[in-house]
């Protein structure tokens, strides 16, 4: 939600998301540009039972990028040399991608990097700096209600 908010703020092609508090309510209601995040995630999560889909989580990629890239290799039926794998890990690291104009859209005129860079912080759990405790409780309650019918286990819930 926080990433969507900052992306919508900086992308001139999208409507202004309003204040964080306004966006929070709009997001939960599913009235954002891309529709309900919950419906989107649940729809694709269900597809895993009938389609070959690999799910990765940002938290896992940040914790152990090499392990997650190996998962991609296995999923694609590829076997790369360790030196190639190390290059992929390096070139897909947040810091390297943030400096790369092609991955951070630095030269894209529709992106206002003065408001927010496309690749902002790359920090796991930074949402805790955006959510109030009340918003965290509201989100957790909404999440539990709307995602109860999935086996999806997330890493991001709870202000702890």
UniProtKB/TrEMBL annotation:
Q: Keyword annotations for this protein?
A: Transferase
On the tree of life, the source organism's domain of life is Eukaryota
Q: Name one GO molecular function term.
A: sulfotransferase activity
Pfam families, sorted: Sulfotransfer_1
The Sulfotransferase domain covers 1-150
* Matches recorded under InterPro entries: P-loop_NTPase, Sulfotransferase_dom
Question: According to the UniProt entry, what is the EC number of this protein?
Answer: 2.8.2.-
Family that this chain belongs to = Belongs to the sulfotransferase 1 family.
| Protein name as annotated | Sulfotransferase
């Amino acid at each position: 939600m926080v990433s969507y908010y900052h992306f919508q703020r900086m992308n001139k092609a999208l409507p202004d998301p309003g204040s964080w508090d306004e966006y929070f309510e709009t997001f939960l209601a599913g009235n954002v540009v891309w529709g309900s995040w919950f419906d989107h995630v649940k729809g694709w999560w269900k597809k895993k039972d009938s389609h070959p889909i690999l799910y990765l989580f940002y938290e896992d990629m940040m914790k152990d990028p090499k392990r997650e890239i190996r998962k991609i290799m296995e999923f694609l039926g590829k076997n790369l040399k360790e030196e190639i794998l190390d290059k992929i890990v390096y070139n897909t690291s947040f810091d390297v991608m943030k400096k790369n104009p092609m991955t951070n859209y630095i030269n894209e005129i529709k992106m206002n990097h003065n408001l927010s860079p496309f690749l902002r912080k790359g920090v796991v759990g930074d949402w805790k700096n955006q959510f109030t405790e009340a918003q965290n409780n509201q989100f957790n309650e909404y999440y539990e209600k709307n995602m109860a019918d999935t086996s999806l286990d997330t890493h991001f819930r709870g202000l702890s």
